[in-house]
Amino acid sequence: MNQAMQRPWQRRLRVMEIRDIALAQLFHPRPEFDRDRYTKELVSLAPVPQDQMAADFLEADILLKLGAGGRPRRAQKSLYRLYKAQVAANGLPAFETFAALLREIETRGHSLEGLYFPQAFLSMNHDSIWADVRKVLGEVSAVIGPLFLNSGTLLGVVRDKSFIAHDDDVDLAVILEAEGAESAARAWQEARIKLGQAGLLAVRQGPNPGAAKLISGGVYNIDLFPGWIEQGRVYVYPHTCGDLPDTALLPLATCDVTDLPIPADAEAMLAVNYGKGWREPDPGYAFPWTRANRRFAAFLTALETDGADMHDDD
């Protein structure tokens, strides 16, 4: 690459060119097309991680992956990152336009089987989603104990009196019978086993052992997180690590929007989760996972140990 190409604006221009080249190949295939070459060049054009999160880079990466053959799910991570990037930039219409383009590509004989298109609650029927959440919450509570609306879903009903428009999943938490990190890890493992036996876990689970994906009646995910009371303090992975007294959680209150369970002091938990500015919408908000996992290190370490022990017993 020459010196001029090192300039940010020229790198961006070349990324856009590669995007258009990959798109043209999908619509009008050429046997001499060298996808590996363009993939390597694309990576070289993004010297810092922030560049790899840019919409043009992600679109080019997705189109190259789809054109390379193999499983379309190889493009899933980039597609979801693109969705999040456009949400943060108030660019949902641009994401929908790109999604429509991918569906047009599918009509040209390129398989998208297994590729999940994130869809914001803005474009969904909220009544049907809440009906599904009530059903799931009731079924799961009957198996593993009391649940409550959590994280982004809690933020939506308290602040917006609805789902957050740009959100695309439902967050719940369960109150485990535990006295500390180790017993909470054991209780969480047992809860996941019970949910699996009851047929309430989604087939595809994420890589984070501190979360579980429940069966959903729609295109959205329903994520479940563990919580417990330890020495009179509240723990809800991954946001509240002894920051609140147990009275901030129990007894559970009833949401005046959905009639579903929420923490006794929902505003206090939202301030811990999202900071003091939680009342102001922030589409670009990113949860500090690294810090959160450090705070819950004892729980996560015990979770890994308990998981290994359970596997050895099978």
Low-confidence stretches: 308-314
Q: What is the CATH architecture term of the largest domain?
A: 2-Layer Sandwich
Percent of sequence in beta strands = 5-15%
How would you classify the helix and strand content by structural class?
A: alpha+beta
Q: H/E series, N to C?
A: HHHHHHHEHEHEEEEEEHHH
**Radius of gyration, taken over Cα atoms and rounded to an integer in Å:** 22 Å
**Whole-number average pLDDT?**
91
- Main sheet overview: 6 strands, mixed
Separation, N- and C-terminal Cα atoms: 55 Å
Total domain modules:
2
By DSSP, the count of extended strands is 8
CATH homologous superfamily annotation of the largest domain: Beta Polymerase, domain 2
Helix count equals 12
Helix content: 40-55%
CATH fold type of the largest domain: Beta Polymerase, domain 2
Based on CA inertia axes, which overall geometry fits?
Answer: elongated
Which CATH class of the largest domain is shown?
Alpha Beta
Can you give me a brief rundown of this structure?
The chain is an alpha+beta fold and 314 residues long.
What does this structure look like?
With 314 residues, this protein is α+β, with helices and mostly antiparallel strands. It has two domains: 3-106, no CATH class; 124-313, 2-Layer Sandwich (Beta Polymerase, domain 2), CATH 3.30.460.10. It contains twelve helices and eight strands. The chain has helices at residues 8-27, 35-44, 49-52, 55-67, 76-88, 92-106, 126-144, 151-160, 181-197, 266-274, 289-295, 297-313, and strands at 147-149, 169-175, 212-214, 221-230, 233-236, 240-245, 253-254, 261-262. The strands form two sheets. Strands 1, 2, 3, 4, 5 and 6 form a six-stranded mixed sheet that branches. Strands 7-8 form a two-stranded antiparallel sheet. A hairpin with a 3-residue loop joins strand 5 (233-236) and strand 6. Helix 8 crosses helix 10 and helix 9 (181-197) packs across helix 12 (297-313). The longest helix has 20 residues, at 8-27. It is elongated, with a radius of gyration of 22 Å. 33% of the residues are buried.
